[in-house]
Hints:
Elements: H1 2-17, H2 21-24, H3 89-104, E1 107-111, H4 126-136, E2 147-152, H5 160-180, E3 187-191, H6 207-213, E4 220-225
Parallel strand pairs: 2-3
Antiparallel strand pairs: 1-4, 2-4
Amino acid sequence: MRSSIALCxxxxxxxxxxxxxxxxxxxxxxxxxxxxAYLQDGSGPIVRSQDGLCWRSGYxxxxxxxxxxxxxxxxxxxxxxxxxxxxxxxxxxxxxAPATVSAxxxxxxxxxxxxxxxxxxxxxxxxAKQRIDEMITKLPSCSSASLILVTxxxxxxxxxxxxxxxxxxRATNVATYLKSKGVTNKMQIVGAGASDPILQCSNNLSGQKxxxxxxxxxxxxxxxxxx
Length: 227
């Protein structure tokens, strides 16, 4: 009996001293967590990336979205807006008045057709004076500081020096007539000569036919420039 007990003890001791390779390679495995749409750390909060984004799991669906993780679902933050500015009525009235005057003071008159000048002449015709009188009736809508630009033109017949002098004389005669009618605005007189024709005539024309054809170019343009 004693021999049997001693044998069992020896066998047990021998088995206990032999190492098991399978047991040496076993690692600790934790139970899988419950199904979640986001990765969570051990204490429960959702794990975020270095950029602050929430890590979604393979179970994530649209219905699992959480405010604070999914930007499209976060309530927008209203940006403070500046109070609306209320215009000073006095300032508003000052701004409106000049605009109205400028719109009414857009006056430009061309003495043309039977109002233009005869060939080589700077004398105002009666028709030209009548057209100027009509323009003068519109001047009260303009500021007295408005500039009146008077530009004279000629046809291409004659030398450049002659035409420049003739065009300036035509503009001067118009300005003189305006002043004789009580117009006190500052005036600027320009002699453009034949540099800005409004009609070109064939070189095949000659004599009176050419003079008549070039008649529209012999003109004066009066333009009121609002200040």
